[in-house]
Amino acid sequence: MQAWRDHLNIDPQVMSGQLCAKGTRIPVTVILDSLAEGATRDEILRSYPTLRPEHIDAALAYAAELAHEELSLPLRSD
Hints:
This protein is mainly alpha-helical. Helix content is 46%, strand content 8%. It contains 3 helices and 2 strands, in the order E-E-H-H-H. It has helices spanning 28-36, 41-47, 53-72; strands at residues 8-10, 19-21. It has a two-stranded antiparallel sheet with strand order 1-2. Helix 1 crosses helix 3 (53-72). It is globular. 21% of the residues are buried.
């Protein structure tokens, strides 16, 4: 799994401290939402010129890590 910390960071002075693609003001949530809505990597990169392919990979690696952590703390079943 990619070391997402190399490409994502939190800066309290940028986007109110949201996790963003390093060197940009693009929150990881925007990247993941775009992918979830069906946008291709190329479409996302065209929409956000400061974004690099490794930022998208890092956002996916971050989401995967969160999913693995969820296995330790399972979602509530209703």
